[in-house]
Design goal:
This protein is elongated. It folds into two domains: 36 residues, no CATH class; 58 residues, no CATH class. By secondary structure, the chain is α+β, with helices and mostly antiparallel strands. Strand 4 and strand 5 form a beta hairpin. Strands 3-8-4-5 form a four-stranded antiparallel sheet, with no helix packed on it. 14% of the residues lie in helices and 31% in strands. The longest helix has 13 residues.
Length: 96
């Protein structure tokens, strides 16, 4: 049973959960934040030149994730891994 959506999320005495009220602007903001943290296929786009990233790919010995690597536009290749399939920016917590 779903209660009125104007109530915050939380259990009710009978065990049901009320959904949180959430406006479209907040949903859009949360979706944008999630998008910043997703793995991006290299077929979709490449990172900026010498931008620190996490990379996922094959180094000849198997697939692995490499932290703090970068892409070099001049040589059109990633440092460390030879066959990168996905990458994502390194996003540090705010205030640190």
């Amino acid at each position: 049973m779903i209660e009125d959506s104007n109530y915050p999320i939380g259990p009710i005495d009978d065990g049901t959960v009320r959904p949180a009220k959430c406006d479209a602007a907040r949903v859009e903001q949360l979706e944008a934040e999630l998008d910043k943290h997703r793995w991006i296929p290299v077929s979709e786009r490449l990172p900026k030149d010498e931008y620190s990233i996490l990379a996922y790919g094959n180094d000849g010995f198997g697939y692995k994730i490499v932290a703090n690597t970068s892409y070099n536009l001049e040589f059109k290749k990633f440092r460390i891994l030879s066959k990168v399939t996905h990458w994502k920016p390194i996003i540090l917590p705010e205030g640190e």
